[in-house]
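Thread: Newbie trying to understand structure tokens

Hi all, I'm a second-year student working on a class project, and my supervisor (Dr. K.) asked me to get a predicted structure for one chain before our next meeting. I've only ever worked with sequences, so writing a 3D structure as a token string is new to me. If someone could post the tokens and maybe explain what I'm looking at, I'd be very grateful. Here's the chain:
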Amino acid sequence: MSAEIINGKMIAAQIKASVRQEAEAFYQRKGRKMGLAVVLVGEDGPSQIYVKNKIAACEQCFIESFAYRLPESTTEDFLIDLIKKMNADERIDAMLIQLPLPAHMRQNHVLSFISPEKDADGFLAVNAGNLMLGNPSLNACTPCGIIELIQSTGRKISGTSAVVVGRSNIVGKPTALLLLENDATVTMCHSKTKHLKEITLHADILVSAVGKKNLITADMVKKGAIVIDVGMNRDERGLSGDVDFENVKEVAGYITPVPGGVGPMTVAMLMRNISKAAQLRE
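---
Reply by user tm_fold:
Sure, no problem. This is what the structure looks like when written as tokens:
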């Protein structure tokens, strides 16, 4: 029997509806909307689309957005000064700098000036450190969305064997930590991992976030496993993930599609982070 498809679009819509209720209640208490500042430097095409989608999501969730579109020639010092002003702006509860930044800017240096309590993306070292320590924090959006997708199946994470393939700072590592926080036994794999199939075959939960088409094949998946595909690979046939979807769905118990799985959850969890940041600042 084929796996049950996890509908990320539907779950994301439910989360955004919940955030809108929180935002409307906040407005009644505070007399202003929750606020997100978005900074885009340069003319990168995909980045412009991402910013447009985030601003549209804010509108859906009754959140005010402040968009700063800066030319490619913007200096690092100018951007840092803008971040400092946004840190002090009481209308702004959370902010994000759309990545990537131009080559002449030191990305980590620039991001370090964002106040941790306004870190909408959850990328800052302080928030990543708090996640590792198990302290309350604003966490990276995609990993939080992954946990929501797993929980939507109705299966408990506690006590499971989870394998995360990919070790990026914004997906792989925080996903592993969140699974650990939920009492899974976690194995991390990556491009240097030997005998990957032997490891993934033991996974009750398998998350792939590598960016390599068809990396995960049916013979690598435990029967009935939950498979979360974070991969985004574009070619002449369109968009695909890391997982050989058509074949893996005949083995897995639950599986996310690409597109329509993890992708919509990232923006939804950004909205939740804004709401969380605003309420923590009350």
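A couple of things are worth pointing out once you decode it. The chain is about 40% helix and 15% strand. The two ends are 50 Å apart (CA to CA). Feel free to ask follow-ups in this thread.
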